[in-house]
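Sample log: NADH oxidoreductase hcr.
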Amino acid sequence: MLIATDSLFSLSSANTQPCYAGGPATLICKAVISETHDSKTFVFEDTQSRSFDFKPGQYVTFAFDINGERHVRAYSISSTPTRPHNIQVTVKRVPDGLVSNWMNDSLAPGMTVEIADISGAFNWIDIPCDKPLFLSGGSGVTPVMSMLQYITDVTLPKDAVFVHFARSPKDVIFRDQLEFMAKRFSNVTVHLVVDSNDEEGFAGETGQISAELLARLVPDHAERSIFMCGPEGFMKAARTVADALPFAALHQESFGEKITLDEATETGGEVFFSLSGKSGQCAKGETLLEAALNAGIWIDSACQQGVCGNCKVMVTQGEVEMQDMGGLMPGEAEAGYVLTCCSWPKGPVAIDA
């Protein structure tokens, strides 16, 4: 683990320190923790010494300057608001992942980063239940881990089941913490499932997500509300399972590296933000979401893949190229709505933002 220089901390001062209330801020990386061979947790504090008040499961939108270009990404917070002195995000290396790989290779204690805001409707506070089923794949463990830590920190009397899927035992993010929590708290059950197992003594399951497997691991599934998160490939399989088995409720979030255009030569242009009265320039290959954040316009976003639908806006003038992956409802594209995370202007455009 890499740690920045020591700083004094006391509980009494933490209880009275100012609180981050949203909007742009500068954070400093205080520590980098290796979770697996290809994922790290980054611990951030506010440069203005404010504590963080957020809802477990929410995400933070970062703006990184890499090689002279700004890149906007949203990462779920893997820590819990019951430990407000810092926020933590856990990032997994992915093939061709410009930002995630840069963070794993280059982001170190003492470096500063910019954030736009903390938000997200996929959180425990707004959609609580008595019998949660936390279902995750790969790095999708991060927001549901935040929820589980909150439940155990506050000692909520919830009957929680946590089912996590990974490629192998060495790929299970937070494995030690999850196994410890299952031993320590009688109301927490953890099932770890891997595609293949070459580790002697691994106590988890081997297999892939299926209705048969989930019904066996969680026989009372009809009484449980699912909180599921992961890369879109995992989420497609999880939705198929959710269609095959009865559940009390379904809450979901998918994410990954942002969508890019294979050919971006004909994109770009001036963007007019009609609701705020501002305008900005969208560079070639840059999304409307990135152009908005660069112009100081906040648009809620999460998955960066055209799936969740959070970044939907109305285009009132101009033409855009969009790669919708299911985030729009039927008829919304025809009505003029686009998903800003996967839309590129083809000349001047105006949007309601």
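Observation: The longest helix spans residues 141-153.
Observation: The first strand starts at residue 2 and ends at 3.
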